[in-house]
Amino acid sequence: MEQYGLDLLEPCEPTEICEVETFEASCGRGLRTLKQILPGEVVLADKPVLPPCADADEFAAAASSLWTELTPEEQMRLMALRWRSNSAPPAQAGPGLVVPATGRLRGIASFNGMAVVKLVMKPSALKTLEAQPCNGVAVYLNGSMLNHSCFPTVNRLPFSSCLVVRASRDLFLGEELVCAYTEVRAPFYIRQAELESTWAFRCCCWRCLLEERVWAAAPEADRVARSAWRRFERRRKDGTCSEEELRELVNSTADSTKTALAEFLVAIQDRTDLLPAEVLQERGFQRYQAACQCTAADVRALDLTGNTPTHKSTDDLLAFYRLLLASFWAAPAFELAFGLQESQRYEEAHQLWLAVRNVTAELLPFSPSHTAAATEASLSAMAAESVAWEEHVQESVRICCGTYGSGAWLRLAAGRLEHLASPTRMGLDGAYGARLEACLEPRDDMQKLAELFRSSIGGMRCKLRTAHPGWDCTTVHM
Ligand SMILES: [Zn+2]
To answer: Which residues form a coiled coil (predicted)?
Structure first.
């Protein structure tokens, strides 16, 4: 039983956890840790102040009618939340207030409400937790203090009974918790426009500042990458994309990113002041600092899928390249990898999934997208009968556990396993099941897995799955 995992999808009474305190951050109030936290650890489990509502109007009506049932502290903290774009810092309020104006309550819900997550099954049997306003909107008093960064340090899952915030990275005592308000696997100018239109602020996190300077060093690569992104956005809207075009987008964004990185490294040799102090001082950036000593030739020698470490500086450079790939390359690569997987080209899919997993691990470790990439990498390894498939399964269980809690891998991956299985490709005999069972131990529920395998192996043998007729990329999975 994992109290802060997928069990929260069912009605339950979670216990609160609060390893954080509010403080005055540079961009208004924020949350920081009260102790050192490891990746995957729950740092905050926060109940909503009211049950989730359909929208901000309903929240305002519910808060007005239930106002006297809130504790004085809840009233005070609710009133201290931001409620319009120019309301910062919010007025300090005392307890026992009269019922606040509807407009203010509506504003509080609009600015601080989080769409609740539900388990969604895609046509490809991929299960993910998706947050959509139609699931209901909840206001969490502690969780509302989380600030945004395009390089998040925590992953938040707003369940209807509880907001669960887990560390994505090592957090030291007193470190600020920052999460992503918007999709951060997009170029900086897209992220900034999105944040400006939805949240009325312009992001100036260190990743945005860094990325802006990297691409400014290579205007031609920047132009090519932006044009590729526009085409990708169009295809996402249409919901269709040919394999050829998607492959072209993936290759072209990887090349442009490599060129931008190489030219940036040349530029920074001449102009050591290229990066502002705000970037240099950030703990998140320090991982990439050594990479700034590398040369353009080092960049050209990088192999995206290659995992063979050469020397330390190249490892750092590969990490930096992966961070930059998260902006233009990751989203189309995710689509291409899914397409390859669906058309049962498992070896090719596996190589691409590994690259996607590593890029996602750089930007969003222990997040739903990291879990999806790692799980797909493990499933393609199994389907391709790769010798190392058990290692990939173990890695995906580890990541899934740090994202959703223990026991989640089975619930999320089992459907995909069955969907991808074909009697010829995945030799689903007892020995296969036993190997999988063994590699999940001890994190997952052995008994449950054994039962699943016994029933699904029997079921799958009866199903003669036909291979996908040609390329089918009509579903956008992101
Ligand atoms: Zn940013």
So the answer is: none
pTM of the model: 0.88
Q: Rounded to the nearest whole angstrom, what is the distance from the C-alpha of residue 146 to the centroid of ligand 1? A: 14
Distance from the alpha carbon of residue 50 to the mean position of ligand 1, in angstroms = 31
Cα 284 to ligand 1 centre (Å): 12
Q: How far is the CA of 150 from the centre of ligand 1 (A)?
A: 4
Check: CB of residue 122 under 8 Å from CB of residue 475.
yes
Domain coordinates of the chain in residue numbers? 6-180, 206-462
DSSP of 188-237: HHHHHHHHHHHHS-----HHHHHHHHHHHT-HHHHHHHHHHHHHHHHHHH
Give distance in angstroms: CA of 23 to centre of ligand 1.
21
Ligand 1 center from residue 196 Cα (angstroms): 11
Tens-place pLDDT, residues 9-32: 888 889 999 999 999 987 788 999
Amino acid at 362: E
Helix, strand, coil percentages in the chain from 3-state DSSP, rounded to 5: 55, 10, 35
